[in-house]
Design a protein that fits this description.
243 residues; alpha+beta; 4-stranded antiparallel β-sheet
Length: 243
């Protein structure tokens, strides 16, 4: 085994993704443009703000627990994407990242909750199309927290690299190196990354406003639903991942 530490460069576009297929908004046929907007608003507030009442009120057959599950799934997905996307690579050269610990994933989720509460979006308008679908326009001011993380990355990891560059890995056996890499180096790397991310939360601001149109479709029984592609595109605007 080549005794080399590998970490991923901060030059990537992480794309957050909904982990749950969004349930169809309730109500019957003949839904209005106002109700289409309310449906999108309820989804946004549940997924990013952790505000569940409108979600539960709008749907025919969901509970607060269902709403919490959707919120937690999105938070966990985003937290894991960040850790995996920027984590230290496995020493076997596979390109996979070392798995963060459960505690580190939990901490990342809590940090993401504090970031998402700052999400700035507005359901601006809704128009019914000739084919019966609804075009719901959402304006978003993307959060710049990952830009701040990138800008401060080198400084934030300076002490970490000073410490680990002094470690004599060449004197370790392959087994010793792998154990050290996974249990010491990678663990402290993730802790340093999370420290740095947490430091950016209070300074998080907004980038130039952007807009996106969500195509809300109506099934034969009158329920509304959205395409996964639209929601992935929207999700990638809430926090700007284009670093």
């Amino acid at each position: 085994m080549k005794k080399t530490v590998r970490t991923k460069i901060f030059a990537m576009a992480l794309t957050g993704a909904m982990l749950l297929s969004l349930a169809a908004c309730g109500a019957g046929k003949g839904m209005s443009t106002e109700e289409a907007s309310q449906c999108v608003q309820a989804e946004l507030d549940t997924t990013y703000k952790g505000q569940f009442q409108a979600f539960v009120d709008f749907y025919d057959n969901v509970t607060t627990e269902d709403a919490k599950d959707q919120y937690n799934a999105n938070i966990e997905g985003e937290a894991y994407n960040l850790l995996y996307g920027l984590g230290p690579e496995m020493p076997d050269g596979s390109g996979d990242s070392v798995e963060p610990s459960e505690m580190q994933l939990h901490r990342a989720k809590e940090i993401y909750k504090s970031i998402y509460v700052k999400a700035d979006y507005t359901v601006a308008s809704s128009t019914k199309q000739d084919d019966g679908t609804f075009a719901v326009k959402v304006t978003i001011r993307p959060l710049d927290v990952l830009h701040l993380l990138s800008d401060n990355f080198e400084t934030g990891f300076e002490e970490f690299w000073t410490k680990f560059d002094a470690v004599d890995t060449e004197s370790m056996s392959d087994e010793e190196f792998e154990n050290w890499y996974l249990t010491v180096f990678a663990a402290e790397y993730y802790d340093t990354l999370l420290d740095l991310l947490e430091e950016q939360v209070d300074s998080t601001g907004y980038l130039e406003e952007k807009s996106i149109v969500i195509q809300v479709q109506q099934s034969e029984d009158g329920a509304l639903f959205f395409s996964d592609e639209d929601w992935v595109n929207l999700d990638s605007l809430i926090i700007d991942y284009n670093i």
